[in-house]
Amino acid sequence: MANFRHPWPVNPRTLSPWPNGNALIPYPVWNAPAPLLDSPLIAPFSVAAGQPAAGAGVSSTTIALTPHSALERSGAQWVARYPTSTNLGDLTPAFSKAVTSFIAAIEAAGGSVTISATYRPPERAYLMHYAWAIAKDGASPASIEAKAGVNIDWAHLDATGQSDPKAAVKAASAMVSGYAMAHSAVLVSRHTQKRAIDMTISGVVGKSVNDASGKAMPIHSLKDLNPVGKSYGVIKLVSDAPHWSDDGH
User: Fold this and answer.
1) Angle value at C-alpha 233, between 209 and 222, nearest 5 degrees
2) What digits encode the pLDDT tens for the residues 25-39?
3) For residues 93 and 244, what is the distance between their CA atoms, to the nearest angstrom?
């Protein structure tokens, strides 16, 4: 590695191309020069393919970083992007089958189900998580990690690279309101893993719902649905009213 030339004081491994398109990179990236790799030990890398590029014997390559001019300031307009799905088909096959059977049993008993969330794209989780961090937890907008593919300017930087913290916090607060958030969103959850559903169930109290074995279970309150759902592989998170998953988390 004697020939490696690094033009700025950051570990070059943290700015290597991303085989995983969801990798987080330091923020802001637009003002960091692309690294120049002259070492024959480091092969050129294809960001799109996640593989060494053709002609790997070439001694240097550059990494394209998102320029500041391509970033869009945070704000309420981001809320509509990367929407959360309400489609059962966007869940894992096993969990989709379990939920479909559970809902069918509820509806057969005369109940109704309204689905508010199934799969949440990681990009949406990222936006929700850091909007809350800035608006509610006092995180510095200029310190937020960037996410590949989400070209958001959390810090509201001007042409000289100066941040506008007041505007950044106001914009993040607008995002929190737009998402109707009551608490922070985690970056990785059962929703981002396609293993959870948020649904509102009504019209079953006073009726009986068949469990997975076909046994009719009397429903005196909505809590009585919990063992019924579990029999299908749909497990209630009791601390979150609409939330069910494949493991109760």
Assistant:
1) 40
2) 444 444 444 343 333
3) 16
Q: Is 101 left (phi over 0), alpha (psi -120 to 50) or beta?
A: alpha
Could you tell me where the beta strands, DSSP code E, fall in the chain?
24-25, 45-46, 51-52, 72-73, 112-117, 146-147, 152-153, 196-202, 207-210, 216-219, 235-236, 243-245
> What is the per-residue pLDDT for 59?
39
Q: Kindly state whether residue 210 falls inside one of the protein's structural domains.
A: yes
The answer to whether residue 102 is domain-embedded is yes
- pLDDT score at 134: 98
Q: Which long-range contacts (CB under 8 A, 24 or more apart) does 100-107 make?
A: 101/212, 101/232, 102/228, 102/229, 102/232, 102/234, 103/199, 105/209, 105/210, 105/211, 105/228, 105/232, 106/201, 106/204, 106/209, 106/225
Does 43 have pLDDT greater than 70? Answer: no
Cα 80 to Cα 178: distance, rounded to the nearest angstrom: 9
pLDDT tens-digit map of 200-224: 999 999 999 999 999 999 999 999 9
Report phi then psi at 93, rounded to 5.
-55, -45
Q: Is 159 helix (H, G, I), strand (E, B) or coil?
A: coil
Comparison of pLDDT for 3 and 82, the residue scoring more: 82
Q: Residue 227: which domain range?
A: 78-120+189-245
Q: Model pTM? A: 0.70
Torsions phi, psi for 120 (to 5 deg): -110, 120
At 4, is the pLDDT very low, low, confident or very high (cuts 50, 70, 90)? very low
Whether residue 158 lies inside any domain: the answer is: no
Report yes or no on 231 lying in a domain.
yes
- Domain count within the chain: 1
* CATH number of the domain within which 212 lies: 3.30.1380.10
